[in-house]
Amino acid sequence: MKTSISYYQNKSEYRLFVTKSFSSLVKLKKEDNQTDFNQLVLKILPEIRNYVNQRLNTAIKKGHFSKKKYKADDIIDQLFITIYDTIDEVENEGNFYLWLFKKTNDLLEDVIVEEEFNELFFKNIDDYSKPEWDELQEEFSTDGGGDLVLLEELDDATYNHNDYSLDHVFVEDDEKDLADKLDTQLGEDKVNEHIALVLHNMPAAMRIVFYLFTNQKLKIEEIAEIQKKSIPEIEKLLSDAKKAIQRSLFNRYSVDR
């Protein structure tokens, strides 16, 4: 399976940088130095921006509003104001990273009405033939699925595409052989494309939990806090997401279990 060690290390280092920036931000606000405050905020927002793009992309793709109605910059600009006005709420630097995601969630929920998921897709997930899967993939890609919708809005090199792998889906020791077969058969690009397709058709709550766990490397407890759900609810959403992706991979690519 694809190794993600360096990716994890980078995420860990990024979170540490954000955490350590908290005291500087508090100091700059006390000094009424909003210019330097904003410059530092710019440096800590790349992963938050990724999250905003992921949520807006899906909402646009599903037709909940037009591409021109909201842009990532609209949310990010508002987040700058929110951080400056309310950073005093944060008790200590250890709470700062999750607080940022909570504030971002609040802003997103003001503009996104979470969509009904494609129940028919989930009902038939075991019955789609390979040609039908390929057609779904083609429609998804052609219409600008995943991260394609908002790419032209991005003006920096810090943006990460979703980089899903089998490591995100097959986590038990007894699943390693199956994952290795799929990895050999498909390759990274096909795996990533397929997982993105299935996630797109998932219930919003399930999709968001999977994204925060895999792309943002947040812990179950942290996601529960951000999403205002219980830990068992988050565990079930994550487990259901992984099982749905597993089943779809088995059925689409006819891997013996």
Task: Write out key terms for the chains shown.
257 residues; mainly alpha; Rna Polymerase Sigma Factor, Chain: A; Butyryl-CoA Dehydrogenase, subunit A, domain 3; 2 domains; disordered N terminus
- Strand tally is 0
The run of helices and strands is HHHHHHHHHHHH
Largest sheet geometry: none
Report the sheet-strand fraction.
under 5%
Distance between the termini: 17 Å
Radius of gyration: 19 Å
Class by SSE composition:
mainly alpha
Which class of the largest domain in CATH terms?
Mainly Alpha
In terms of quaternary structure, the protein is single chain
Parts with pLDDT < 50 across at least 5 consecutive residues: 1-8, 144-161
Overall morphology = elongated
Question: How many domains is the backbone divided into?
Answer: 2
Helix content: 55-70%
SS summary, helix count: 12
CATH topology of the largest domain: Butyryl-CoA Dehydrogenase, subunit A, domain 3
Q: Mean pLDDT, nearest integer?
A: 79
CATH architecture level-2 label of the largest domain = Up-down Bundle
